[in-house]
Design a protein that fits this description.
Chain A: Keywords: Hydrolase, Protease, Serine protease. Chain A: One of its GO terms (biological process) is proteolysis. Chain A: Belongs to the peptidase S8 family. The complex is a heterodimer of chains A (768) and B (364). Chain A has 14 helices and 35 strands. Chain A has 768 residues and is an alpha+beta fold. Chain A folds into 5 domains: 60 residues, UreE, C-terminal domain (Alpha-Beta Plaits), CATH 3.30.70; 83 residues, Alpha-Beta Plaits; 57 residues, Alpha-Beta Plaits (2-Layer Sandwich); 335 residues, Peptidase S8/S53 domain (Rossmann fold, 3-Layer(aba) Sandwich), CATH 3.40.50; 139 residues, Jelly Rolls (Sandwich). In chain A, helix 9 packs parallel to helix 13 and helix 13 packs across helix 14. Chain B has a single domain, classed as Ribonuclease Z/Hydroxyacylglutathione hydrolase-like (Metallo-beta-lactamase, Chain A), CATH 3.60.15. At the A-B interface, helix 5 and strand 25 of A face helix 2, helix 4, helix 5 and helix 6 of B.
Chain lengths: 768, 364
């Protein structure tokens, strides 16, 4: 059995090893880039390469018949024609011969998208549009398949037909589970639909075509058309060449003191803060139900309030928005500072979303409009404690988040993971104490370029729901004993049972981080009835206790404000990117040890807790008494050395004393469900040790590594789907280290990135 | 026995007081937003200071019945945390959760309603009362959570089970001198309701535009109300919640209380605030009372003028002298006084004084 492989060549030694392997014929059909050699290799060869000191990734096994497409010939094709053309045999699929024309195809490539490969494809009339969650590419083919039939770069090609359009957006949804329920037979599916248009088409023109077919178009944005079928047939619409996917959208709802010590801000009134920042000079944005502007804890710091839900009335009838705002930015005036938020000196821009019916009618159709409004007011960190329960689906809302950040790389949306995790009989239940089922991520929390926050438990044992178990508090969600018997709060090493779990529908890890989100005390709006909270706060009507990932999210938003202030004030970095703030925060996390936090599938990051709980004290050093150093690179796309697949950039740094070092790489990806541009981080010391990023990811998950290779030590597993990568080395020996950032597979460069290195380390020196 | 009809705006908030010996109290529903602060709290403080409620009964989850109880429980929780003496100590909560009463183990209906609302809601435009039906489900769950927090047992008298006459070996219970018989919801009612919910979802799942949904029937969730017959010393009171007339009759039939197809009670709390959608003229011909209590303030047109006409005319035709007790001087009350003068039709209208928190109906 032979495999397609990549051997990484990020220094002169590995480059020399790879060259020898090519010369010896160990790597056949080689294609050499600066950062890796890709080619084919047998099992024994892979073992030899790996043992020689190369980092090797095995891609796919090569089919025995050698070249030619691996898929079966569809029925109805011409005799001997279109070998391997996968059948799009769903309803309404055109006969195979009709596909011998320009159109959209799903293409599996034999290697990464190098410049040469892209040119070869271009010569054959192929434009790669998007990468999908299976690692295939959605491609536009200009002249039919003739020249692709024996193309050396194409493993498989399949028409992007009706079935693909209908299935593209179809992770398990509430509708799917609804349709299978016992008394629901025949009720069918949601009636409001969204069509996502392939890149490069005009959605307005397509909307007109849908209307002409009898559909009722409700709204159109750049890539999304929201419509109801009306007289049109779903199959007819799905058959339109311009449409990439059709999905049922979700509706957004609000997700729902002791916190500060848990995230490293160990202070009570007037006490010591582990960092000297309080958000001075920063502007934070919060889009939520409404705000009690008269609350003493916000006095003098409200820069702007926008009434988006009820014209002219941004007040808080619910209580959610005022509570969230207090956690981000309350200064504790009404509690002698005891209940101050995380960034108590920041300015606030608030966008009120709740409409007269109690829904979030203030959300615009395109989330970018919400973000732009805040951005124009100077907001660079934006709290979103709301979302729609969609089982980790990447929806148009997720796309909007990714697009806005891609276009405004200094804008960081912080997003609550959702409160829909449960543990009931059926589905994935693993009989393990504390286990909570996945996936349950909300949208837009499934976006790549935001910072997604799950909830851990607070240490509270008295107020709110702290004395109840999860089964007592939410009997419908926690029917399985185990998590059901655990108290809602009290053990800060555990997660909140309801906290939305990953992965997303492309197997990407979410949440990114967790923060305390049960029984959180914060500001209570004057017009808000106590019944809307988890409970009162003792002897002080200005505060109340609430919980949810909604309450965890503003903890991280507040921290992001402090981190931004650090970079601006201490590091002279006037405009830190969202990727840099995210990298710094994730780099500072501490993994939780509670049994639900490390439940199957474990590893780091995990689908339960992401990269762990945020902690400001290990995120940025206190300049007055630093316990670690922080080095960083904030590389925007325009000047990035990562232009083509295979490009890499290499930095040297010193570990100055034996100690733990932490590295985090984050990049703002091109919008789209799956990872479009894949980077990789590798760390070497000056002897022979090499560490690869996210090495522990999937450590406990069954991975599609070809079985015969499973015993080869150090072999890289499947290409991770994440745009966040970490490396941690405990007790690193002093000496020189090298960190390389590699463009492992770029759909379109150049790609910017942010790298943060923390520990007893020197500054980063760029090599070459 | 005494019924205190608290001025719960458009909703219900009824305090039941047993006679003879030491008075025992039962609260049935808490009214909508504002009822607790404006009326229920001061009334409890004045009437049963530091006392005990033998039961708090939430007939069903509509906001105009449940919110005042949520406010009461939130206040009791605040008092507990602040170390204050409790306003009142409820010994038990009677409440049928939506999932127990109507839904299946998969929460099919709750999910379906959520889906329908989601579809309409994505357009971010106006939906009138529809979400209330759905949010009532969440409010019911919140109520039970609060009860657990306050260590108030739920349905203890019923072994923690659904309050439904079909499930009770003996549907009659004693509280003080009051004998309480559960009339509804019957199992047949609940099955019918489940069908209606599914039909509602089927019908409205294509109501993608909110204005379509706004026109949809919003009354379904009302229909699972707990209906109780309360008797003491030969006097009787029928508490109907928002149950539909035919369901009430079915429950009375099932209990063997209408052997000849008619039923008489001393006091009848009008179902659904006297709405004419939950009753017919025939209902009031076959099921009669000496006094009718209308808990409403004109919102949604309640009590409906038609309902009042049916009651007054049917009593007049049968030469029965009756009393109509209303918690507020709603427009329909004013109108019936004009079109059907009390003296001409042999009935008496009674309203609370402007400063009263409740109007009291004596059953002695």
């Amino acid at each position: 059995m032979r495999y397609r492989i990549k051997a990484y060549t990020l220094d002169s030694k590995t480059r020399e090893l790879a060259r020898e392997a090519v010369d010896e014929g160990l790597i056949e059909e080689p294609e050499i880039t600066s950062g890796f050699v890709q080619g084919t290799c047998g099992e024994a060869g892979i073992r030899r390469l790996s043992e020689s000191g190369l980092t090797v990734r095995a891609l796919a096994p090569i089919p025995e018949e050698g070249t030619g497409f691996k898929s079966a010939t569809p029925s109805g094709g011409r005799s001997g024609g279109a070998p391997g053309l996968s059948g799009a045999s769903g309803p309404g699929a055109a006969p195979a011969s009709a596909r011998e024309q320009p159109g959209h195809y799903l293409m599996t490539l034999r290697g990464s998208v190098t410049r040469d490969l892209r040119e070869r494809l271009s010569d054959a009339g192929v434009t790669l549009l998007e990468r999908d969650e299976g690692g295939r590419y959605v491609a536009r083919v200009a002249e039919g398949l003739g020249r692709l039939r024996d193309h050396p770069d194409v493993e498989d090609i399949q028409h992007y037909g009706v079935r693909q359009t209908l299935e593209a957006g179809r992770a398990p949804t509430q509708n799917a589970s609804f349709a299978t329920a016992s008394v629901a037979a025949g009720l069918g599916e949601a009636s409001v639909l969204e069509a996502v248009v392939h890149p490069g088409f005009d959605s307005d023109a397509l909307a007109e075509a849908l209307s002409a077919d009898g559909a009722e178009v409700m709204a159109t944005t750049r890539r999304v058309i929201r419509f109801t079928l009306g007289r049109a047939r779903l199959e007819d619409i799905a058959a339109k060449e311009e449409i990439a996917e059709i999905q049922a959208p979700g509706v957004a709802g609000l997700l729902h003191d002791v916190v500060r010590p848990l995230v490293g801000l160990a202070d009570q009134a007037g006490g010591h803060r582990s960092v000297p920042y309080k958000g001075e000079g920063e502007v934070v944005g919060i889009a939520d139900s409404g705000l009690d502007q008269e609350h003493p804890d916000f006095r003098g710091r409200i820069r702007k309030v926008v009434a988006r839900g009820r014209p002219g009335d941004p007040s808080d009838l619910h209580g959610h928005g005022t509570h969230v705002t207090g956690t981000v930015a309350g200064d504790g005036s009404a509690s002698d500072g005891a209940l101050a938020g995380i960034a108590p000196a920041t300015e606030i821009v608030f966008q009120s979303l709740m409409d007269a019916q109690g829904g979030l009618g203030g959300l615009p159709l395109v989330l970018g409009d919400l973000f732009q409004e805040a951005y124009d007011e100077g907001v660079r960190i934006h709290n979103n404690s709301w979302g729609a329960f969609l089982h980790g689906r990447y929806t148009s809302m997720s796309y909007d988040v990714d697009r806005f950040v891609h276009e405004h790389p200094d804008f960081l949306p912080v997003i609550a993971a959702g409160n829909d995790a449960s543990c009931n009989p059926g589905a994935n239940v693993i009989n393990q104490p504390g286990f909570v089922d996945w996936p349950s991520m909300s949208a837009p929390a499934s976006a790549k370029n935001g910072l997604t926050v799950g909830a851990s438990r607070s240490s509270r044992t008295d107020l709110g729901l702290a004395k109840l178990t999860y089964a007592q508090a939410w009997p419908k969600s926690f029917k399985v004993p185990g998590i059901g018997e655990e108290p809602v709060s009290g053990d800060p090493e555990c997660l909140a049972g309801f906290s939305g779990r990953g992965p997303c529908d492309d197997m990407r890890v979410k949440p990114d981080v967790v923060a305390p989100g049960t029984d959180v005390a914060s500001t209570r709006g004057a017009r808000t009835p106590l019944r809307n909270f988890w409970g009162p706060y003792p002897h002080n009507p200005y505060y109340a206790v609430m919980g949810g990932t909604s309450m965890a999210c503003p903890v991280v938003t507040g921290l992001a404000v402090l981190v931004r202030q650090y970079f601006r004030r201490e590091r002279g970095h006037g405009n830190p990117s969202a990727a840099l703030l995210k990298a710094a925060i994730i780099n500072g996390t501490r993994p939780l040890s509670g049994r639900d936090a490390i439940a199957d599938p474990g590893g780091r990051p995990s689908y339960h807790q992401g990269f762990g709980r945020v902690d400001i004290s290990s995120t940025v050093p206190d300049p007055a008494a630093p316990t670690f150093a922080l080095s960083f690179q904030d590389q925007d796309a325009s000047g990035s050395p990562l232009v083509d697949t295979g490009d890499y950039v290499r930095f040297a740094f010193q570990v100055e004393a034996k100690g733990d070092i932490r590295l985090c790489l984050v990049w703002t990806d091109i919008p789209g469900r799956a990872l479009q541009n894949a980077l990789l981080m590798q760390l070497e010391d000056s002897s022979t040790n090499t560490w690869n990023s996210n090495g522990d990811l999937y450590a406990h998950v069954e991975m599609p590594v070809p079985d015969p290779l499973a015993t080869i030590p150090g072999l890289l597993k499947r290409d991770p789907n994440n745009n966040v990568h970490v490396i941690r080395v405990d007790d690193a020996e002093p000496g020189e280290y090298f960190v390389s950032i590699l463009a492992d597979n770029l759909l379109a460069g150049p790609q910017g990135f942010a790298l943060v290195v923390a520990g007893p380390v020197s500054d980063l020196a760029r090599l070459g | 026995m005494r019924l205190h009809a608290i001025r719960a705006f458009e909703g219900d908030c009824l305090l039941l007081e047993s006679g003879g010996g030491e008075a025992k109290y039962v609260l049935v529903d808490g009214g909508p937003d504002g009822t607790f602060e404006d009326h229920l709290k001061p009334y409890l403080e004045a009437t049963i200071p530091g006392g005990r409620l033998e039961a708090v009964i939430v007939s069903h989850v509509d906001r105009d019945h449940i919110v005042g109880v949520l406010d009461l429980f939130a206040e009791l929780n605040r008092q507990r945390i602040d170390g204050e003496d409790p306003l009142i100590s409820p010994a038990e909560l009677w409440h049928n959760s939506f999932s127990d009463a109507i839904d299946d183990d998969e929460d099919t209906i709750a999910k379906g309603v959520r889906m329908v609302l989601a579809n309409a809601g994505v357009a971010s435009t106006i939906m009138t009362d529809v979400p209330i039906a759905f949010f009532g489900i969440a409010e019911g769950e919140r109520l039970r959570r609060e009860a657990r927090l306050l260590h108030i047992p739920i349905n203890r008298t019923f072994g923690g089970e659904l309050i439904c006459p079909d499930l009770l070996p003996n549907p009659a219970l004693e509280i003080g001198g009051m004998r309480m018989t559960v009339i509804g919801p019957t199992d047949a009612n609940l099955r019918a309701l489940q069908e209606e919910w599914l039909e509602w979802i089927r019908r409205n799942r294509t109501a993608a535009r909110p204005e379509q949904l706004a026109n949809a029937d919003k009354s379904i969730p009302n229909l699972s109300s707990i209906v109780l017959l309360v008797e003491e010393d030969g006097r009787s009171l029928l508490l109907t919640g928002d149950a539909r007339g035919d369901h009430i009759e079915q429950g009375l039939d099932q209990a063997g209380l209408r052997p000849d197809g008619t039923f008489h009670v001393n006091v009848m709390k009008l179902q659904h605030h006297g709405s004419d959608r939950n009753a017919t003229r025939t209902f009031f011909r076959r099921n009669t009372a000496d006094a009718y209590v209308a808990s409403a303030n004109g919102k949604h047109g309640n009590p409906d003028y038609e309902t009042l006409v049916w009651i007054v005319e049917e009593a007049h035709a049968a030469e029965r002298a009756i009393e109509i007790v209303a918690t507020n001087d709603a427009p329909s009350i004013q109108r019936i006084r004009q079109t059907h003068p009390e003296a001409d039709f042999g009935y008496r209208l009674r309203l609370p004084g402007d400063d009263d928190h409740a109007v009291i109906v004596e059953l002695t």
